[in-house]
Amino acid sequence: YSSHIDNIAKSFDDKNHAECAEFHDFAKQSDKFQTYITLKEEEFIDFDEGIIYSNN
User: How many Å apart are CA 47 and CA 45, to the nearest integer?
Assistant: First the structure.
């Protein structure tokens, strides 16, 4: 696991970008983080198609 994160971080040429990628990948493993970034899609409009989608 840790070598996977290190490999991803090292794939970026920019040092700051690599450091951010490392923290981001580490945080993705947290359940609380996953809950935060998973938005419940209740309803949205597809403006290209003119369609309203709903989960209700």
Answer: 6
CA triple 13-10-20, angle to 5 deg? 80
pLDDT at 20: 74
**CA 56 – CA 48 distance, rounded (Å):** 22
Hey, is 47 helix, strand or coil?
coil
pTM of the model: 0.33
Cα distance between the two ends of the chain: 39
- Asked if 53 and 44 count as a contact pair (C-beta separation under 8 A), the reply is yes
Find, among 36, 16, 39, the residue nearest to 27 by Cα.
36
Express each pLDDT in 11-44 by its tens digit: 777 777 777 777 766 666 676 766 766 666 555 5
